Amino acid sequence: MKKIVFYILISSIISSLGSIAAYKKYAKSFLSPSYEVYPRKKRASSALVDSSGLPDFTRVVEKTIHAVVNVKNYSRNIGGVGGNNKLDPFDFFFGFPDDLEKGRIPQKNDFIGLHGSGVIISPDGYIVTNNHVIKHAEKIEITLNDQRSYRAKLMGTDPSTDIALLKINEKNLPFIYFSDSNQVKVGEWVLAIGNPFDLNSTVTAGIISAKNRSLGILRGENQAAIESFFQTDAAVNPGNSGGALVNTNGELIGINTAISSVTGNFIGYSFAAPSNLVGKVIQDIKKYGTVQRAFLGVKGMDLSKSEYLKAYNHKTHTNIKQQKGFLIGEVLPGSGAYNAGIQKGDIIKRIDGKSIQNIADLSFIVGTKHPGDQIKINILRNGKRKDFNVILRDRQGRKKIIRKEDMDPSELLGATFESIEKKKRKYLGIDYGIRVKEIKKSGRLSGIGIEEGDIILSLNGEKMEKPSDINSVLHSLLIKKHSGDVPVKYIKKNGEVYIVLFEID
Predict the structure, then answer these.
(1) Active-site position among 91, 162, 180, 198
(2) Is 128 within 8 Å of 278 (Cβ atoms)?
(3) Is-contact 435 493, C-beta < 8 A?
């Protein structure tokens, strides 16, 4: 009996030392540029079985629930909530405004708060959530599970993956380890933790019911969107967005992002962005100040969809059969694919040895890469397999990392500008200002509601008289490493004047 007690004691000490070492290694790696995602195989499962043989997740919940927070977005400009009283699709994926919960439709200039969730991913206060949860926010408030509240700083966003990184000033916080989402299997148990309907610390359980789902919800706002969601039947409702999807080890495998619903409430399936993609995004934001997005340079179609394939065969007089793979319909000149010799009509079968079944597989693999990375693509051409080594580039054709401070201001803001002729200025009753000529969904200005045709009057208090004035002000702010809000005064096409803020860092 003494020997048994001795062995148990020794085993407990070794286990404790291992946990401390793992914690130190994780904290050090996350806070350094060499951030990594931890594979599940490094730790044994924490899941238990109760006396009746059913799963018991109590230890997993105790391990993770304090690392999931309530995120409140205070803004006067939330998606479609406002003057036209219409809700955009994402309004169903996080908690409704306070006023809506009280039965009142908020008006355009009301200061309202939307509820969502977030996950603490390091002990010094880094929090990951969804971009749509904090979109248009003028103030972001974080409430911990113990009800302590903090104002959060927005470190960066990536509309392409619907991920945002926040930071609060606190230390020794509970946090959740990342797991290798590539190891997740269909059928395994998962838990969704979040704040549905502003009910803090709610846990639901389910299984992974499918992988690599592409829903089209992000692509509607951003043509460079990367959608490769986990599908789960764990109940997720408004307010869960940005919350944690964890495995039975209590490790983060995904960020809950959307639900499949016509009512706005859970009816069977929810979807989460995989942790490996989330990890790449937040690593880029921390290390470079902005997400480094690589592009293959092809357009095409999913060969798993018979209706699309039938139309393609009819139009091109071909007889391609339904199969796994991605059919290339266009190769963009100057892209990595073009330079490697990949052609229209090629079918991508594998990338770096991994099977490509559909567009979700393709976008996920390329989405975890950086400009300058090399990938090996296996294609099917005229019935024969061929391999190509492709060096990926960014959207501007560059093969190198571009830090935020080195970016052209038009890239940072996601817009181009043009001067306004004197007659037009006189008609509008202004003697300065520049017009927004083109705007991209991925830039700062789109995120704060500015649209093409709007007129920028001032940036950070400086009058805008010609497009180059934008560059001058932003370059000055970047050189000074300005931290915090940058005000933009502008006129909407209907003549109304607004002042909105964006964070440059």
Answers:
(1) 162
(2) yes
(3) no
Q: Is 485 designated active site?
A: no
Q: Which of 66, 115, 132, 370 is catalytic?
A: 132
Q: Note the pLDDT of residue 150.
A: 96
Minimal CA–CA distance to 243: which of 225, 226, 224, 259? Answer: 259
The DSSP string of 383-414 is TEEEEEEEE-B-TTS--S---GGGS-HHHHHT
Report the distance separating Cα 291 and Cα 155, nearest Å. 11
pLDDT score of 248: 92
Whether residue 162 lies in the annotated active site: yes
Confidence (pLDDT) at 314: 77
One-letter amino acid at 181 equals S
Which of 333, 334, 365 is closest to 348 using CA atoms?
Answer: 365
- How confident is the model at residue 37, as a pLDDT? 43
Rounded distance, CA 305 to CA 224, Å?
Answer: 21
Instruction: Give percent of the chain above pLDDT 90.
Output: 41
**pLDDT score at 29:** 40
The enclosing H or E element of 382 equals none
Task: Give the max Cα distance, the chain.
Answer: 96
Q: What's the pLDDT score for residue 195?
A: 85
**What backbone torsions phi and psi does residue 73 show, to the nearest 5 degrees?**
-105, 110
Dihedral, 85, 88, 90, 93 alpha carbons, nearest 10: 40
| 91 three-state secondary structure | helix
**With b meaning 16 or more CB within 10 Å and e meaning fewer, what string describes 428-448?**
eeeeebbbbeebbbbbbbbbb
Set 179, 241, 275, 410: catalytic member: 241
Report pLDDT for 311.
Answer: 81
Residue 241 known to be catalytic = yes
DSSP state, 361?
H
- Which stretches in the chain have pLDDT values below 50? 1-46, 78-106, 108-109
Alpha-carbon distance of 68 to 199, in angstroms, equals: 12
